[in-house]
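Dear support,

I submitted the protein below through the web form. The confirmation email said the job was done, but the results page showed an empty box. After a refresh the structure appeared. I'm attaching both so you can tell me whether what I see now is the final result or a partial one.
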Amino acid sequence: MTPLIEAQDVPYLPRGVRLQGDRVRGIRVLQAPERALQLDQIGEAILSELDGTRSLEQIVAGLAARYNAPVEQIAGDVRDFLTGLIERRMVFLKDAS
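What the results page shows now:
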């Protein structure tokens, strides 16, 4: 089975989907039309890197350096997290090439 996201793909938040702070609860939320997803620190760190210009590979390298963690572990975690959001149509992809 082909993965939904490849190293060269550029993940981004589509129009209408955004990171938002919930001041009452003190949490970060990914909001989309008629739905919201509460984020933990890891989810927030990943989604904060989605600027629509960097590939998955570049995002993973940046997170691995920032958190001093193995690239392979970060890559798997980021890929799994983003795959779930791609399936929910809360993250879209464009090919970097």
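Response: this is the final, complete result; the empty box was a page-load delay. The chain has three helices and five strands.
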